[in-house]
Design goal:
With 281 residues, the protein is α+β, with helices and mostly antiparallel strands. It has a single domain, classed as Ribosomal Protein S5, domain 2 (2-Layer Sandwich), CATH 3.30.230.20. The chain has six helices and 21 strands. The protein is globular. The N and C termini lie close together (5 Å).
């Protein structure tokens, strides 16, 4: 049996938001068994990290309750799930989670440094009983029963990124080594359009991989860094299940919109094909 965990102590991060460019601060606090991951925004409102609270998926995942919003939550949620944290309060000051270096490495390193406390209640798992398929035009997501959390990611972008395929099991060891260090990415010709739409206000070559016509403007951390970052994003979005995903996810050209749509559908009891939450190992 695997038991629930929380952080041994609080961790904190400060910086700017990738899309808003605004100052941002977040503290991740230990929490009791059974709480799960919860957001506390400006010390004014608190709500669970679940797909029901997703309010936008344009270029990032935004959660909110009432008039309160937190943007770009996927990297921090990815680190928490990938490193095996079941319970935590995510206290946010500002409109967005700090971008750090554009990956989840800073978050994962801090989690590893502070360590986890084992709580004596069984880990809550989300276990599908049969495959489910979700599609958005050429984007495809398949969620299938499995003995552990595993992701198979295929991306296909214009040159110089091209087509890439990466598969990995998601556990703390593989997550920290193969997923967490990979940064968000985009194309040089897209930046002006993003800025005009009010996005990427805090983006720099220090916190994003930018591809020009001939290739990346700075060295990649992995030849398949774009596909690995898409796995990072998917893990963060699947943290919004509110339980540990014991399933295999096959993703083809997917993104935040399809991920969050799928997770929201998977949480509906009326879906019938009967994904279930289990409190056993």
């Amino acid at each position: 049996m695997q038991y629930q965990t929380t952080l041994r102590d609080a961790i904190a991060f400060e910086g700017v938001g990738l899309h808003t460019g605004a100052p941002a601060r977040v503290r991740v606090l230990p929490a009791p068994a059974g709480q799960g991951l919860r957001f506390r925004v400006d010390d004014a409102v608190e709500f669970p990290a679940r797909a029901d609270y997703v309010v936008d998926t344009v270029r990032c995942t935004v959660v909110g309750f009432g008039r309160y919003r937190v943007s770009t939550v996927e990297h921090l949620l990815s680190a928490l799930l990938g490193c095996g944290v079941d319970n935590a309060t995510i206290a946010v000051d500002g409109p967005e989670i700090p971008v750090t270096d554009g990956s989840a490495k800073v978050f994962a390193d801090a989690i590893e440094a502070v360590g986890l406390t084992t709580l004596h209640e069984a880990r809550v798992r989300w276990i599908p009983t049969e495959p489910r398929v979700f599609r958005d035009n050429e984007k495809l997501l398949v969620v299938a029963p499995a003995s552990s959390f595993r992701v198979r990611m295929t991306i296909d972008y214009p040159s110089p990124v091209g087509a890439q395929y990466v598969e990995t099991e998601i556990n703390p060891t593989t997550y920290r080594a193969e997923v967490a260090p990979n940064r968000t990415f985009g194309f040089l010709h897209e930046l002006e359009a993003l800025v005009k739409r009010g996005l990427a206000q805090g983006g720099t070559l220090e916190n994003a991989v930018v591809f020009g016509p001939e290739g990346p403007l700075a060295p990649l951390r992995s030849p398949t860094e774009p596909a690995r970052h898409k796995i990072l994003d998917l893990v963060g979005d699947f943290a919004l299940l509110g339980a540990y995903p014991q399933c295999e996810v096959i993703a083809i050209k997917s993104g935040h919109k399809l991920h969050c749509t799928a997770v929201r559908e998977l949480l509906r009891p009326a879906a019938g094909e009967a994904a279930a939450v289990s409190a056993t190992s």
